[in-house]
Write a structure and sequence with these properties.
This protein is mainly alpha-helical. It has one domain: Lysozyme. It is built from 5 helices and 2 strands, in the order αααββαα. One of its GO terms (molecular function) is lysozyme activity. Its EC number is 3.2.1.17.
């Protein structure tokens, strides 16, 4: 028989070993600036990330209706944009695993590519929670 304390301890250890973290709003703004996101769209990007992943870098979404999944801070879909194998591929030429780390550079590059092709409408989180609505206040986040 399994000892329930042992199982709980193992679960805690596994959770603590995850690479992801939740960024504060200003940490997110700083990261977006470092990755070349335009200042005039910064509040939209912050709203998108907050709506899609709650600023968590390690989020992998539940399967979508078509069986695909969304990965990382920007919730980038594996159907078109990232490869679920160990070999980078699809339109962003990355693995999905590369999108769920604290280093957001590959996810940022991919998100900007998606935006160039489809705008913010590529993300349901932005359409449902940001479009035409008050955007997050980032005035306290230093440049």
């Amino acid at each position: 028989m399994f000892n329930i304390k042992f199982v709980v301890l193992c679960a805690i250890v596994l959770l603590c070993q995850c690479e992801g973290k939740q960024l504060s709003r200003c940490e997110l703004v700083r990261q977006l600036r470092q990755n070349g996101f335009p200042e005039n769209k910064m509040r939209d990007w912050v709203c998108l990330v907050e709506s899609e992943s709650s600023r968590r870098t390690d989020i992998i979404g539940k399967p979508n209706y078509d069986g695909s999944r969304d990965y990382g801070l920007f919730q980038i879909n594996d159907r078109y944009w990232c490869s679920t194998t160990n070999k980078p591929g699809k339109d962003c030429n990355v693995t999905c695993k590369q999108l769920v780390t604290d280093n957001i550079s590959k996810a940022a590059t991919c998100a900007k590519k998606i935006y160039q092709r489809h705008g913010f409408n590529a993300w349901y989180g932005w359409k449902n929670k940001c479009q035409g609505k008050p955007l997050p206040d980032i005035s306290s986040c230093k440049k």
